[in-house]
Amino acid sequence: MTAKKNSYEKEYEELEEIIGLIQNDKLPMDEVLSKVESGFKLIEKLQKTLSETKNKIEKLQAKYDQ
How is the chain split among helix, strand and coil, in percent rounded to 5? Predict the structure, then answer.
């Protein structure tokens, strides 16, 4: 689980960096487009990880609520 946590945190930090670069308004338009695409891919990965984690927690909760 630690590897996933580190991966999640790393990807989240990368997303924050991308957002900062886009907000900076100093990138050429083609680079902005590339960063936006990368950002959306990261968001998709992060959402998937959160969803999987939520499902695991719900299963554990159901198991121990019995």
Answer: 90, 0, 10
Q: For residues 18 and 42, is the Cβ–Cβ distance under 8 A?
A: yes
Considering only CA atoms, which of 14, 11, 2, 20 is closest in space to residue 47?
Answer: 11
Threshold 0.85, pTM exceeds: no
- Biggest alpha carbon–alpha carbon distance for the chain: 57
Query: 3 to each of 6, 54, 56, how far by Cα in Å?
Result: 5, 17, 16
pLDDT 10s digits, 7-50: 999 999 999 999 999 998 889 999 999 999 999 999 999 999 99
